[in-house]
Amino acid sequence: MTIFSTLGRSALFTLEPESAHHLSILALKSGLLPSCRAAYDKNLAVQTAGLSFPNPIGLAAGYDKNGEVPGEILRLGFGFTEIGSVTPKPQAGNPKPRIFRLPANQGVINRLGFNNQGHQALLTRLEKFENPQIGPIGINIGANKDSADRVADYTLGLNVFYDHADYLTINISSPNTPGLRGLQSRDSLGPLLDAVMAARKMQREAGKKHKPIFLKIAPDLTIGELEEIAEELNRHAMDGLIISNTTMARSSLRDEPASNEAGGLSGKPLFERSTIVLAKMRKLVGPDMTLVGVGGIDCAETALEKICAGADILQLYTGFIYQGPGLVRCILKELSTLVARQGASSISQLRDRKLDEWAAKPIPA
């Protein structure tokens, strides 16, 4: 139990969630939070998608939406971080309140709706950013709610941020933008990936270096839908897949005041569903595609379970809300011990150890 979880969280949780989030960004900007040396345990390093990660624990998109503190996040010990989601035009998002803590479930429901300052504000910030080169920085690209051409929004985002990202994520899985998840259907996904890959090809033909492109999917897909997505990913030779975004399901929740709020559910209740989908997708896409495991990671054991179910690298966010900046240090320290205890020389050697077990489970209703 960290000091944050006993004292700091109690103070922050007296604030409305978005106010607490803003305060945490200010705390990072202050430079007063300590760096984490455990991040550089060589046994935790991962090489995947042509990138070098000092450790497999990343901060998911949604926290640093506008690219205000990527360097500070990396100095906390994260092996990588993901900015966004960012849309072409600034967007206020959905009406407040739109974030709901579920402390009895260690979860969060949000219906933010891609609130962000838009491409230009982020680009201006990135042009002034001095990258500490600690770990990769990804940019998560979204589409505006009122866009007449969402495919164009994604290709524009790729072109605008190509020079500033170590990798780019195409986010078509937020449940809080009407119709967005429809882009996961085969009829829509194929043309979207055609356009995105063509945009990257043009960047490469202009002399730019190769930048990996990841797709972020929802956990609320049927096995048939997963099979179709896997076929499209393999057809387009995609670099990676992030599994998963938040869920609309509520079957795993203990009842508490905000349990029935509309929006996407994250945190501990998402762990089982997202890990099953992760393992099934590993089976479908094969051993070479980079898979990013997300959903319910709050300790070294859950992090390792994701890796054993097929993930190369990981992202967390809700655990960070509940346990604070010390969480990444705790996970890394304990992961180092677990890797050594299992006789592995690297964290990557533990991947897929429980793949069959997780892949055999049905996706919860």
Q: How helical, in percent, are the residues?
A: 25-40%
The Rg value, from CA coordinates, equals 19 Å
Main β-sheet, spatial strand arrangement: 3-4-7-8-9-10-12-13
**Unreliable segments (pLDDT under 50, ≥5 consecutive)?**
1-7
- The first-level CATH class is given as Alpha Beta
N-to-C CA distance: 33 Å
Derived from helix and strand composition plus strand pairing, the structural class reads: alpha/beta
Major sheet description: 8 strands, parallel, barrel
Oligomer: single chain
How many E strands? 13
Number of domains: 1
Shape: globular
CATH hierarchy: architecture = Alpha-Beta Barrel
DSSP helical segment count = 12
Q: Report the CATH topology name.
A: TIM Barrel
Can you offer a commentary on this structure?
The structure is a single chain. The model is unreliable at 1-7 (pLDDT under 50). The chain has helices at 3-12, 17-29, 70-75, 118-128, 150-161, 186-205, 223-235, 271-285, 300-308, 318-323, 326-341, 355-359, and strands at residues 46-48, 51-53, 57-59, 80-86, 99-102, 107-110, 137-141, 167-171, 213-217, 240-243, 264-267, 290-294, 313-316. The protein has a single domain (3-359), classed as Aldolase class I (TIM Barrel, Alpha-Beta Barrel), CATH 3.20.20. The two termini are 33 Å apart. It has 365 residues and is α/β, with parallel strands linked by helices. β9, α7 and β10 form a beta-alpha-beta unit. The longest helix is centred in the middle third of the chain and has 20 residues, at 186-205. It is 37% helix and 15% strand. It contains 12 helices and 13 strands. Strands 3-4-7-8-9-10-12-13 form an 8-stranded parallel barrel, surrounded by 5 helices. A 3-stranded antiparallel sheet has the order 5-6-11, with no helix packed on it.
